[in-house]
Each structure stands twice: as C-alpha cells, then as structure tokens.
Amino acid sequence: METDVDGIVERLNEADGQGLATAGAVLTIDLGAVRENYRRLKARLGGTRCAGVVKADGYGLGAAVIARALQKEGCDSFFVANASEGIDLRAALGTGPAIHVLNGLPPGAEGEAAAAGLIPVANSTDQLAAWRATARRLGRKLPVAVQVDSGMSRLGMPPVEVEAVAADAEAFTGLDLVLVMSHLACADEPDHAANRAQLAAFERLRRLLPAAPASLANSSGIFLGPEWHFDLARPGAALYGINPTPDADNPMHPVVRLEAKVIQARTIGAGVGIGYGHTAIADGPLRVATISLGYADGWRRRAAAFAHFKDVRLPFIGRVSMDSIILDVSDLPEGSLKAGDMVEMIGPSQTLDEVARYSGTIAYEVLTSLGHRFHRRYLGA
Ligand SMILES: *Cc1c(COP(=O)(O)O)cnc(C)c1O
Predict the structure, then answer these.
(1) pLDDT, tens digit, for every residue of 296-352?
(2) Which domain range does residue 138 map to?
(3) Within a domain: 251
(4) Which tens digit of pLDDT belongs to each residue from 66-75?
(5) Does 225 share its domain with 266?
(6) Structural contact between residues 214 and 179, judged by C-beta atoms closer than 8 angstroms
(7) What's its EC (predicted)?
(8) Structure pTM?
(9) Ligand 1 atom index nearest CA of 187
(10) Does 358 participate in catalysis according to the annotation?
(11) Is residue 219 lining ligand 1, measured as CB closer than 6 Å?
(12) Binding-site residues for substrate, please?
C-alpha cells in the first residue's frame, strides 16, 4: 500500500463527504495495475521510451496520482489535452517531468504555459508563430513539439504547412524542437490500410523538419509492431486496463473496480410496474433490489448491463434512474442480499470493455464519464 497517496486520497474523500460509510458507490483504482501495465508496454517497446497520457484527469482516474505512480516506473514524459490540465499537472508534479499539451495553446494562453514550463504541441503554423513570439518576448529558448497530420485530419500541420515550415529558415528561431509527432486514426484495426499509409506519410513529413525525436504510437499503435514505435510511445488507454487489441484477449491488467451499495431489497407483487415509465411489469412475485448508482454517476441510462453479487448475474430491470438502478435478484437465495451490501458493476465479473459494449460505446467513454460522488480508493502503488 502506498500510504502517502492513500492518505491524501482518503482525506480528500472525507473532506468531500465521500467517505466509505456515506458514499453510494465505491471506485477502486489499482495503481499497482497501472504500473504493471506500464511495465508490460515498456517490455513490448524495447528501447523506445514510453510516456504516459493523462488527459481528461487521467481518463477519469486522477491525473496527478496516476502520473506519480508512473514516475515510480521511470516515466518522465506526460501528455495532457489542454493547457489548463498541464498547469494543474505541473503544480502536482513540480519541475522535472516533460508535460506536453496535445491541443497546443489557444491564443492568449502562451504566457501561462511558458511560466508552467509546458511543451505545447504546435498543430499549425499559427500556433508555432505565437510560441516563437512568446520566446522572443520572454528572451529565452522555449521547447516545442510539432504535430504533423499524417492522415487523420483532426490535428496537426497538413503537408503544405509542414513544407512551408521546412522552407522557413526562421521557423524555429528561439525554439527547441523536442518532438515531432502524429496520431493514428485506425490503430485498433491492425489490418486497416490507413496504418501503413500514415506510417509512410509520417516518415516523409518528419524528414522535412529539423532532426528531432519522433512519436506516432498510442496504445494500440504499440501493438502494430516496432515500425510504429519510433523514439517515444504515447499510451493512455492501455495503462488504464482498456484492451488495446479489441480483436484479441486483453493483454493489460484491469485497473478499475466499481461497486454500488444496495439501498433496499424486497419482493414486489405480480402485475406491479417497475421504475420510470413502467417499462417493466412483474409477471409474478419478483425479488428486486435497488442500488445507489445511476446516470448521474456516468452510468449510461440506456446501458442494458448487469450487476454481480458473489458471481451471480443480476439483470437491470426497468429504467436506469439518476441516482439508482433496480435489479432483478431472483437468482440469489432469498435474504442473501441486504441493504449496505455491495454489488459489482465493473470488475472481474463484468469487465470495463463489456460495460462499454452493453452501453453502446467504447471503454474510453465509460471511464471518462465516471462521476464524482464515488468513494475513491487507490490501491498498491
Ligand atoms: C489520447 C491520445 C493518445 C493516447 O491514446 P490511447 O488510445 O488512449 O492510448 C495519444 N496521442 C494522442 C494525440 C491522443 O490524442
């Protein structure tokens, strides 16, 4: 157990009124598993360095705590999406680790980003020019990463801009180009033709720029093979236990467990309507239990999933409410489930990827949607 981290988090939970006794649900985050996943990715990467992507508050699990756990594995390079996230992460980690801002800087954010020692990813010649002007104004050299668009059309300099930068002898005046990167659109589909096309485009575009370390692979990109690894990999999802190889068994260790408390359990009579809209009607006497987790906790209203108690599968019945879900508990021995018992929502009986499937979405969205009124428990760093 990592007492410093656990202590901090326990205190935060209690201060928020989200102590174990009073919270409706408990989210357990296994930092030991995050570290194990980092080691598994490192092993696959050989000599390639491995960063940690901790945008969106570490995919909802706590950017600062996750980053500190990764630092213990030697990770000294992090990626966030927005400058505001970078500033928070810098405050948590102190000086030292590299913090890259994937979206680059919105106009006007350059001063604060420079003060926090962030590395913006310049996605356009405009972003690059604004950062160059900031370096001139501050009278010191600033680090910069450049993203080239190798074929996703989301972020990064299109080939014509890369060529313009290549032709401009002053493009990097006052700047230190520390990384050239791009992002894969279809890395989770290993046979997709876009993977090799993007690889070729990235090879060509990066050669137009001054020599710098290169980065292309996200989690799934790491599993495409060594050609996609370059100097630095940028996994997020796989660190958090999401399967980076959706067509095969999950090579990662699960990180999250979500349990919800039973509020009440009872038997309802035949013909009685269940939940909002009476979308279900009991066709005979039916044993039900209501748990304190709902769509306000990020559990999709339309998700037709299950809860589990001692490995027994308990189907949802009726609609998911804001703060509660009704379960059909007929398959449990009578009286075995009581108020205060915890049922598993995400864990060994029902994986994160399965919950995503039941919810009609991807595990990334399930994780980043998880709400803010759980009691959070961090295990084993
Ligand atoms: C989110 C993101 C990553 C991490 O992707 P995962 O699929 O979560 O590993 C890497 N690079 C960029 C540019 C991203 O936006």
Answers:
(1) 999 999 888 899 999 999 999 999 999 999 999 999 999 999 999 999 999 999 999
(2) 32-240
(3) no
(4) 999 999 999 9
(5) no
(6) yes
(7) 5.1.1.1
(8) 0.94
(9) 7
(10) no
(11) yes
(12) 154, 322
